[in-house]
Amino acid sequence: MMHPGDPVGWPGIMVMAIGFFVFMAALFAARRRGEKKPEGPGGRQVRSSWVGIAVQGFGIGLVAFGPQNVTLYPASPVALAEAAIVAGLMIATIGLFFAASRTMGKNWSLVARTRSDHRLVTGGPFAYVRHPIYVALFLFMVAIAVAFGHTGRLLVGVPVYALGTWLRIRHEERLLRDMFGAAYDAYAARVKRFVPGIF
Fold it and tell me: What share of the chain is helix, strand, coil (3-state, %, to 5)?
């Protein structure tokens, strides 16, 4: 039988549920912005990035699904601390995703692509990291782990998520380098992928 994980309380689970619905609303809004204009001549889409999306999703699923040990008294300091941590992680997740997708505007897409009118986005969160949306999804996964008491599963979920992310950025960076050449190389040399100034 699968171990239920760390003790958790209802406050953290409820905060996670609210954060999830707000995140889904932000995702839906980003998708609508990205669909305003179809790809024109010169646009490219890499459908193989669906593999990376599936692997990322599997990594998050490894952390999310399974029994929960909901035994903490809701008003206990530990339960309230867990809820505060989950709230902080979800605020960071939603804020980073919203800022990044809004900065990208119509360039945002679930699947890696470029458009005939594509521009190299280097403002907003992209001035600090090249892949802020994947950072946001990582924070989302950590929030799930804390809310559901599945922190031990991060030992498996994080490497799987990292593999999926690598598959996606490999395609995305190739597309951007092909389209923008030296401009993208200069941007990549200046801005790290995930952690400002470090990694």
Answer: 65, 5, 30
Give the torsion sign (CA, 136, 191, 167, 153).
Answer: negative
- pLDDT tens-digit map of 87-106: 999 999 999 999 999 998 87
C-alpha–C-alpha distance, residues 62 and 71, integer Å: 22
Q: Name the token pair of 193.
A: 């992928």
Weakest mean pLDDT among 46-55, 154-163, 188-197: 46-55
Segment 152-169, tens digit of pLDDT: 999 999 999 999 999 999
Q: How far apart are alpha carbons 69 and 9 in whole angstroms?
A: 8
Enclosing H/E stretch for 87:
helix 77-104
Distance separating alpha carbons of residues 96 and 83, to the nearest angstrom: 20
Q: Tokens 């867990």 correspond to what residue?
A: 82
pTM: 0.90
The gap from C-alpha 110 to its chain's centroid, in whole angstroms, comes to: 11
How far is CA 178 from each of CA 35, 48, 172, 192, rounded to the nearest angstrom?
23, 17, 10, 19
